[in-house]
Amino acid sequence: MQTATDIEVNEHYLYPGQLFAAPAPYVITTILGSCVSVCLWDPVLRIGGMNHYLLPFWNGDGLPSPKYGNIAIPKLIEKMLSIGSQRSNLKAKVFGGGAVLETSGGLLNVGERNIMLYKDLLENEKMPVLCSDTGGTQGRKVIFHSDTGEVFVKKIQKAIRPIG
Q: Going by CATH, does the domain composed of 9-156 fall within 1.10.10.10?
């Protein structure tokens, strides 16, 4: 009989501006500040993927990169479809968008704009968001289990300490 410890689970660290999805079980980890990660999970095939975008919109200069939310979210959906998911089975969980830098808000509040972007795009895609942990003033460590859809979030406290 196969036990949970017999199942090999791969690990992948997701750097800013990247996305990752695979048909095999993975534990995908990333660290977020004002960036946002969308985790897509297919409960039928028990597969998932995650992106990590830094800015909401690609302005058309250079190559379209998943470091921009309006590129990263459609690319993640496309990747999930390419590994066998049906669009109607995909569920989202979203994290990040913290105001981790001291600013006066407005255009500089990248986290807030990243949050607004995912809400607009996923609503337009008619993709259900099962849960989210966004905004605030803290960073987050996100650990996504692609086979179960479970996500663990650890808030990162700001630390002020002398250097030197």
A: no
